[in-house]
Amino acid sequence: MSTPAAPPLPDGIVVVVKEECATCHSVGSVLRQLADATTTTVYTQDDPRFPESPTPIHDADLSVSWHHDIETVPTVIRVVDGIEVQRTVGWRRDEWERVTGVGGLGPDLPAMRPGCGSMSVDPDLVDELNVRFGASVLASRRIDVADAEDDIEMMFTRGWSDGLPVVPPTEQRVMRMLTGTGRAPSDVVSTVPPDLVDVTVEKVAVAAVMAGCLPEYLPWVLTAVEAACTNEFNMHGLLATTMPVGPVIVCSGPGTRAIGMNSGGNALGQGNRANATIGRALQLVVRNVGGGRPGEVDRATHGSPGKIGFCFAENDADSPYGTLAVEHGIEPGVDALTLFAGEGTRCVVDQLSREPDSLARSLAASLQAMHHPKLILGFDAILVMGPEHARVFAEAGWTREQILAGIAEHLNRPGSELVRGAGGMAEGLPEAFGDAPSLPKFRPGGLMLAYAGNGTGLFSEIIGGWANGDVGSKPVTRAVTY
Amino acid sequence: MTGSRTILDPTSERTIAERERLARPASLDGLTVGLLDISKPRGDVFLDRLEQRLIDVGASVKRYKKPTFTKPAPVDLRHEIAVECQVVIEALAD
């Protein structure tokens, strides 16, 4: 689409006003003074009958105001040969006299009075005006919705929803979303499986709108898409697996607080817009751009509620053991996220342990059962502790490394307990492992710690993983790109 | 022009290229059949049995294996199968 031409301003003095502005009313006599003294054109933004004199031109579509960057009314501009040479805003007698070249203006008025906001920068209108008058930078196909058609129902019908209503991605909304990043809409973010399609910043913004994101969430969504579409993370395999896993996004850094993410009570639950929509936006990219849909490439036996979107923030400001991102090599204080191929959460209840070794044993006993007590080394896990459990370790002076080592100490089993048939269960390790004296549940680095939740509850949450390492998926940690 | 009644296409907008499948051979006699193990447990059990039966009907068999079941077969492996075999069977198992 081409940019509609900017309407030229007439030579002389141009004043832009609106009826709703008290300062514009108070300069009514000044406008008449100007009209008497020199060539004066008044544009009115709202009421075409204001002011009564001199007769105004109604800037009904705000085209003049938008194109000439009117941010405040009244604005006074001197135009010579079609070119703006001077401007002032609000009412300041000395400035008006300087710009207009007319002296003795508004003798009964105070020396200055601030103006009001121009309608062309009204937050409710500006996005629509940017779309109407700006050069469109968006490449996506436009789809007209019939008058009789409900746009949300239409998006369900076309298969673009994850089962919940999506916000229609109008051009205005997508343009507003794009203000959340410094990246160009045409930038390619990643190649999205399973269809291996290049996804642009614009298409990610479309998904973010649909998911319900605010513009300030977009850098997190973009970074999550980048992390998901790596060979290490293996989003294709994560989709195709029959296991109930999806991308889990663990966020940290001051930016999580700036965008209002929840790292406290119910951090892993519902009710926080950023937590709920960032994860959903990633999944909508995978669905709509990558073509990854349940029943098609997504072959999950049960799936999990987290596959709508699973994203939360760590309470890094209070964490006694730092963040998962720092564990993965990000500098403390840097906005970052870790993508983990994970299932839903499993609660560990231990309301009695006050000694770290007792709690480590409890956590280990629950972790041993993840996926199956006899299956080891093939799956990673994130253990999310809240303040009450973490305090037991913190008060004993245990560091992150000591906590992980302390739990791991109780996660060893002799091979004879883990082989197929042991304990009367067919599932287990091949016979060859039967002689091993001690086998760990997790590979090195396979058990990770995160910190979230409120201060009431001696609970932790286990997020079990999927096939790990080169076979399946590795956690991917990235600093957020703005 | 761009009111709330116009939305942007959220899909990749790609045009899908469809390739026609090769006709099924009337007989496997004398053909080379590739057996692709996707590296799932017990896939080899299934493929061993298939190999035996294919040899019985006069086919020659070549065995291949993906590095991991969770990722698509590497392009080199796909190419290798395409130039060495006339027929391929991919085994899913657990």
Which helices and strands, and how do they pair?
The complex is a heterodimer of chains A (482) and B (94).
Chain A: E1 12-17, H1 22-26, H2 28-37, E2 40-44, E3 57-58, H3 63-67, E4 72-73, E5 75-80, E6 83-89, E7 91-92, H4 93-100, E8 112-113, E9 116-117, H5 126-133, E10 142-144, H6 151-157, H7 171-178, E11 188-192, E12 197-200, H8 201-211, H9 218-228, H10 235-240, E13 246-252, H11 254-258, H12 273-289, E14 310-313, H13 324-327, E15 336-349, H14 356-368, E16 379-385, H15 387-395, H16 400-408, E17 412-413, H17 415-418, E18 439-440, E19 447-451, E20 459-467, E21 476-479
Parallel strand pairs in A: 1-2, 2-3, 13-14, 16-19
Antiparallel strand pairs in A: 1-5, 4-9, 5-6, 7-8, 11-12, 13-15, 15-20, 15-21, 16-20, 17-18
Chain B: E1 6-8, E2 32-37, H1 43-56, E3 60-65, H2 75-84, E4 87-91
Parallel strand pairs in B: 2-3, 2-4
